[in-house]
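Troubleshooting: if your tokenizer reports a length mismatch, compare your output against this known-good record of 191 residues.
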Amino acid sequence: MAKLYFYYASMNAGKSSTLLQAAFNYGERGMRVSLWTAAIDDRPGFGAISSRIGLASDAHRFTPETDILEFVLHEHAEGRVDCVLIDEAQFLTEEQVWQCARLADEAGTPVVCYGLRTDFQGKLFPGSAALLGIADSLVELKGICHCGRKATMNLRVDETGKAVKQGAQTEIGGNDRYVALCRKHFMAALR
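Known-good structure output:
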């Protein structure tokens, strides 16, 4: 039976590289995957799935309006899709998460989502909340805080490195805007 998986972690925990390794493994066995990432990241050079260690692959881009179920079923009609791999899954809508569940349950296609659990204020992203609620399997990937503890939080910083406490839930950025921290150091940075 196919399942809906959610691999979650703080930033810089290896989510994208783990996804790309899974895609490689499927391909090495002659299996076809459907790769997805959020279209929200419009920085030059982004839009593909890429990891900090240099792995990259092109992918379909989803917006809140994308019907992932319909798209993958259409792909499936052209040739079996053995697995759907979704990066930046925190940006999925609740409806899209249910579409992923239907792909697993009705089409028999495993769907593996990778994303952040919480934002820079420690609040769940809508896609992450839905995945935490209905995924068949939840897997936490481990990031590391500067103190050596497990990083579970994503601190947003300004251009001087000072913690940002308020703002829109989503602000695109990498290591220049976010620092993965354990909860203790996250809370200390916000004081």
